[in-house]
Structures are given as C-alpha cells and as structure tokens.
Amino acid sequence: MTLLWTFSVAFSNYQLFKDSLFSHKIVSYPRSSPSTYPNKPVCVITGATSGLGLSTACKLSKEGYVVVIGLMIGTNYIGPFVMTKLLLPLLESSHVSSKIVNVTSFTHRAVTNMQVDEGTVYGKKFLKSKQYPYAQIYEYSKLCLLLFSYELHRQLCQMGKSHQIFVNVANPRVVQTNIMREVPASLSWVAFFVLKRLRLLESSECGNDSIIDAALVPPGTSGAYFFWGKGRTINSSALSQDAKLAHELWETTSNLLSVTPFGN
C-alpha cells in the first residue's frame, strides 16, 4: 500500500508536469473574490478529516464565505452524500449561487475495479479481513466520493440547476498525518521521507491550495478535479469517470439509506 500510494501521487504529479510542459492542455482557473457579491455565498467542504479541513475553513471565512464542514463518520462517502441531500433544498432555494467542494485523494487511483452492492456501500465486505483494512477503505471511500460528485454534477445539469449549484472536487497536497497508520512505522517513515525529498510533502496550512482554488473558482465552473494548487485541474482515474458505475452507486446508496433521489 505504501508503494502504491507513493506511485499514485507521483503519477498524478507526472500527469500535471507532462500536460504543463508538453501538451499545454492543462486547464487552470483563477480565484474569484466573494467580496464583490451582494450576499455572502455558501461553500460546503466535505471529505476533509484532518487539519486540512480546519485550515481551509479559516481561509475561506477570511475570504467572506459562510463555510460548512462535513465531519466524516465511518467513511468519507456516506457523510457527504447524506449532508448534501439535507442541504440541497436550501441551496436550491437560495437567491445566491452555491458551491460544493468534495475533498478527495490521489489514493483513489489504487482502486482498479469496483462492484456496487449493499455490502460495498456499507463497507461490510471489508470486515472479512482479520485486521481492519483502513487503507483499502480509505481508497474506496475517496473513489466513491469522486463518483458521487460527478454524478451530482450530471444530475444538476439535467435538472437545469447547474447555473446555481456548482460541484467540484479537490485533491490537496500530501500532508504528514496518520493516514498510513495501517503500515509498519518504518515503511511509513520511508514513504514520508521520500515524499519530503521530492518536495511533495506539505503542512496542513500550505497543503490546501487546491481546496481554496475549488471554492474560489469563478461561478460557472463545475465537475472539475482540482489538483495541488495554482488553479490547476487534471483528470481523475478512468474508473472514477464511469458514468454508469456512478449512477449505480447513487441508486444503491439512496435505496440503502431510504433517501429520495435528488430532484424528487
């Protein structure tokens, strides 16, 4: 897992470097200041379970946003799904535009296949292991969050509300937290040492640039995957962009939680 995660973040940076240096197709967005708005806009931040959430909230509050932070219980997916469902009617009725920023991770690339059923959504299939597979659940939950975000964006477009509610995903920089609690301490130390040497390791105060970018992006931008600051976006994994899989996950989660599908 340590090697796979290190490779995943290295691959994402390679993609960013390649697009920037050779193809010039990299898409980046400027930040817009909410101070020009007549009313304070709302920004929903989900998926941030470490110091990134707090530091992001502080920065956005200074920018003039009303910030709502989702605290994850169990996984990084069910919480955002339910909270978004509860908040969506308020966002729809608001006379100002709203932004939903879901905080994901490069570790979603470690998931190469996925079967959507009640067991996977609830996480029951992971309980078959002798030890709690924290890393595997983390990767899976971040992939689910991506699939959910893209499906929400598509459904808002179909309902004609994409001009009012914008959904984007942010991948913050690598921060030295207890994310590798499952691996031996020696391997965790090596991974963080390598990332630090490659200058890919940041503090929580400096590692949230992409979250701020996604929150401050000009109105009209939705369905984008912000990666590592400077307004830059890249493509998430091919699996995360599977529209059929995303819809299956959406329907299964709604049925399990007895949640009425959005727009109904």
Automatic annotation (TrEMBL):
UniProt keywords (A-Z) are: Oxidoreductase
What Gene Ontology molecular function terms does this protein carry? very-long-chain 3-oxoacyl-CoA reductase activity
Q: Which Gene3D superfamilies match?
A: NAD(P)-binding Rossmann-like Domain (3.40.50.720)
Q: What class of enzyme is it?
A: oxidoreductase
- Give the EC number(s) under which this enzyme is classified: 1.1.1.330
What the record says about family reads: Belongs to the short-chain dehydrogenases/reductases (SDR) family.
Q: What is this protein called?
A: Putative very-long-chain 3-oxoacyl-CoA reductase
Native source organism of the sequence = Medicago truncatula
